[in-house]
Amino acid sequence: MGIMVVFDAVIIIFGIYMIGSALKMKKTGEISSAVLAPEEIKKCRDKQAFIAFMYWKEALFGGLVSVVGVLGIINNVVVSLGAWNLIEMIAFLAAFLWFQRELRKARRKFI
Question: Which end of the chain has less neighbouring CB within 10 Å, N or C?
Fold first, then answer.
């Protein structure tokens, strides 16, 4: 088992965790500590608005990350998808930067 397969498995687990965290945040009405530090959660002026702004973005980010991980495992174990390792890293980085930008917007707006 190559290191990239392990890396891809961790990416899938992280993506699933982010999806679960987003759904739990929506269901319970409590901001997830996966998104904000406990100190920031206490400072949040409107928790429900923050959740409405962020939960679907967090779930989308988790879904994108999971798909990248699954395609990475397919690339490394089943069939080579060409230059997928480079595309995988770029896709992961792009999704991460997008999510961080949206989180920064939410912090400015609600904290």
Answer: N
pTM greater than 0.90 (yes/no): no
Burial of 16 (0-12, 13-18, 19+ CB in 10 A): middle
User: What distances in angstroms separate CA 100 from CA 35, 74, 96, 97, 103, one per listed residue?
Assistant: 10, 27, 6, 5, 5
Rounded to the nearest 10 degrees, how much is the dihedral formed by the CA atoms of 77, 83, 84, 88? 140
10-residue block means of pLDDT along the chain (111 residues)? 82 93 91 85 87 91 91 81 76 90 91 84
- C-alpha distances in Å from residue 37, one per residue of 31, 41, 44: 10, 6, 11
